[in-house]
């Protein structure tokens, strides 16, 4: 199964990369853009009996290593 | 009294720390590879600056799972033992949960390497007892992710328990909350700070303001022995 994990800044946490890219886009003349955010995208393959089991495992991975709950949140998709 | 400097793959301030303890403070010190599991013969452990595991994923996120970290957690439970994390060491201590909060990207996105002014907020710790409260120190920083962040509740607790040991004075270089440059745990035996006292412990390096931090540790450990 293929797993796609997206790690993003929590609401209210500064995203300096997003802000910098937003400023760059505005200075290039894209005046109608706002809310630029830069996310982390992690992809992995997982062997498991069921999708549910894989989801449980991925959640554990995200809590343990892949995200820092103080500043980040995550979402993921498991594709069969 | 014995100091240990943990070496992770990618640590690069380990030699500076070792040198200051050995040649300036003149106390016994050893390097400790990240696979070490025995820390009981040591009194103070230093987590040096650098880029452990290439700063991959998040700074300190991989180092936190090094073998030595379980031993370090046990070590830190004893309030008579001291742990100091400098720069990447601070990031590792936060990731490991030995200190609250997290260090995120500097507000202006730049890697900043320069001397800054620090203010001593609390001199009632084993790491700062030789300073005067309110004393302003000139110590260099060198980091891209030093922007200290935590939730409101944690910040209120840090203030209430006087866990904020050092703040940036007048100019905050990285956007950290409450101008935080260094904090300790509630038990006051674990300190994390972004500035590098080991780079400011000899006159030839332009500042000796960091030396009193190591002298404070020496004095605190001397009293206990």
Automatic annotation (TrEMBL), chain A:
Primary location class: cytoplasm
Localization per record: Cytoplasm
Gene Ontology BP terms: 'de novo' IMP biosynthetic process
InterPro entries for this protein: PurS (IPR003850), PurS-like_sf (IPR036604)
Pathway info: Purine metabolism; IMP biosynthesis via de novo pathway; 5-amino-1-(5-phospho-D-ribosyl)imidazole from N(2)-formyl-N(1)-(5-phospho-D-ribosyl)glycinamide: step 1/2
Family stated for the protein in its record: Belongs to the PurS family.
Taxonomic source organism: candidate division WOR-1 bacterium RIFOXYB2_FULL_37_13
Gene Ontology MF, one: ATP binding
Keyword set, alphabetical order: ATP-binding, Cytoplasm, Ligase, Nucleotide-binding, Purine biosynthesis
Top-level class of the enzyme under EC nomenclature: ligase
Annotated PANTHER family: PHOSPHORIBOSYLFORMYLGLYCINAMIDINE SYNTHASE SUBUNIT PURS (PTHR34696)
This protein's name: Phosphoribosylformylglycinamidine synthase subunit PurS
Domain of life: Bacteria
GO terms under cellular component: cytoplasm
EC number(s) per entry: 6.3.5.3
UniProtKB/TrEMBL annotation, chain B:
Catalytic residue list: 87 (nucleophile), 196, 198
Protein name, entry field: Phosphoribosylformylglycinamidine synthase subunit PurQ
Originating organism: candidate division WOR-1 bacterium RIFOXYB2_FULL_37_13
Location relative to the cell: Cytoplasm
Known partners and oligomeric status: Part of the FGAM synthase complex composed of 1 PurL, 1 PurQ and 2 PurS subunits.
Listed EC numbers: 6.3.5.3, 3.5.1.2
Catalytic activity: L-glutamine + H2O = L-glutamate + NH4(+); N(2)-formyl-N(1)-(5-phospho-beta-D-ribosyl)glycinamide + L-glutamine + ATP + H2O = 2-formamido-N(1)-(5-O-phospho-beta-D-ribosyl)acetamidine + L-glutamate + ADP + phosphate + H(+)
Primary location recorded for the protein, binned into one broad class: cytoplasm
Gene3D superfamilies hit by this protein: 3.40.50.880
């Amino acid at each position: 199964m293929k797993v796609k994990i997206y790690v993003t800044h929590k609401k209210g946490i500064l995203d300096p990369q997003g802000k910098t890219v937003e400023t760059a886009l505005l200075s290039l003349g894209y005046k109608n853009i706002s809310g630029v955010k830069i996310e982390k995208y992690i992809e992995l393959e997982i062997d498991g009996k069921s999708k549910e089991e894989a989801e449980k495992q991925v959640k554990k991975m995200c809590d343990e290593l892949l995200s820092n709950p103080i500043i980040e949140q995550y979402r993921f998709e498991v594709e069969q | 009294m014995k100091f240990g400097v943990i070496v992770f793959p990618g640590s690069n301030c380990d030699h500076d720390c070792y040198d200051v303890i050995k040649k300036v403070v003149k106390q016994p010190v050893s390097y400790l590879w990240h696979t070490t599991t025995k820390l009981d013969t040591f009194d103070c452990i230093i987590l040096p600056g650098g880029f452990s595991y290439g700063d991959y994923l998040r700074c300190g996120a991989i180092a936190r799972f090094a073998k030595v970290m379980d031993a370090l957690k046990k070590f830190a439970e004893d309030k008579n033992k001291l742990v100091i994390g400098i720069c990447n060491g601070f990031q590792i201590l936060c990731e490991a949960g030995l200190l609250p909060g997290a260090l995120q990207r500097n507000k202006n996105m730049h890697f900043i390497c320069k001397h800054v002014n620090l203010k001593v907020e609390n001199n009632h710790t084993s790491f700062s007892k030789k300073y005067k409260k309110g004393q302003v120190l000139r110590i260099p920083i060198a980091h891209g992710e030093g922007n200290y962040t935590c939730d409101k509740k944690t910040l209120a607790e840090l203030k209430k328990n006087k866990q904020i040991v050092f703040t940036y004075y007048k100019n905050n270089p990285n956007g950290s909350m409450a101008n935080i440059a260094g904090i300790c745990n509630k038990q006051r035996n674990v300190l994390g700070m972004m500035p590098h006292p080991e780079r400011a412990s000899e006159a030839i390096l332009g500042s000796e303001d960091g030396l009193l931090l190591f002298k404070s540790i020496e004095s605190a450990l001397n009293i206990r022995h």
